[in-house]
Amino acid sequence: MLIDLERRWMWRPDRACASVPLKVFFPPGPTNPRNPPSQAALDAAEQAKRICAGCPVMLECRRDTLGEPYGVWGGEAEWERRERRRQVAASAASWPEATRLAWGRLCRDLYNASGHWSRVQERTGLSGRLAQTLVSEYIRSQPRKNASAPPEGAITRVLDWPEKPGTKHAWVWHGGRMKDAHIRGVTPDGSHYYVSVASGHSHSHAWVQREYVRIYGGKSDPPLKERLNRAEYDRIRAAARRKAA
């Protein structure tokens, strides 16, 4: 599945919605799972979907908007996309390895382009937690690089650490950016840290190689919640996610 990271089709002058008022594609009234769409919303959605039906970029629009929470996109109303998202989440645990790695690479590219997991969710329909899991699996599947080599997407200033400490435990180079992070755990051999970094209004967690972590002021490791066996930890998390799905 290939996704244009810029959604360039949205700027095509021949798209069916180019000259239609935006409100036509947003049915009135509450349509969340506890408040099914009213008849007025259903009628309005059908009117919008008839416009989409003749659009030359309908399939591209539908492909890229599974995570859109409101409105009609690509000939699908928000309650229809919600059901598709539920089906995708339920099937994720049984995806073959090749499919999981392909999604992981896609989610990584989308996150690197935007810097926000909410943007990844909007484009793919995957929850932030599932997207991060798939990205982690993809990264772990890649050949181990030399310790001196910067991570993929890094710029030449990768080792240009900030002089002043942040407000947490350490500076971490992750996802092509320098981030202020809490350290939650470390593998027994000390090769990887498990870090928590701000991501929108919440936090995301990731494994980071030791050479891309700089404890403030050269201090010793901060107090850790646990010393993690990475393989065992990932196995337990994966089993819990499958059970939840």
Overview of this structure, please?
The protein has 7 helices and 6 strands, in the order ααααααββββββα. Strands 1, 2, 3, 4, 5 and 6 form a 6-stranded mixed β-sheet that branches. The protein is an alpha+beta fold. The protein folds into 3 domains: 81 residues, no CATH class; 47 residues, no CATH class; 75 residues, no CATH class. The protein is 37% helix and 15% strand. The two termini are 23 Å apart. The protein is elongated. β1 and β2 form a beta hairpin.
Number of strands: 6
Helix content estimate: 25-40%
Structural class: alpha+beta
Distance between the termini: 23 Å
Radius of gyration: 21 Å
Mean pLDDT: 78
CA-based shape: elongated
Query: How would a crystallographer describe the biggest sheet?
Result: 6 strands, mixed
Order of helices and strands: HHHHHHEEEEEEH
Unreliable stretches, pLDDT < 50, 5 or more residues?
1-5, 146-151, 153-159
- Total individual domains: 3
Strand coverage percent = 5-15%
Give the helix tally: 7
Family: Belongs to the WhiB family.
Pfam families: Whib (PF02467)
Cofactor: [4Fe-4S] cluster
Subcellular location: Cytoplasm
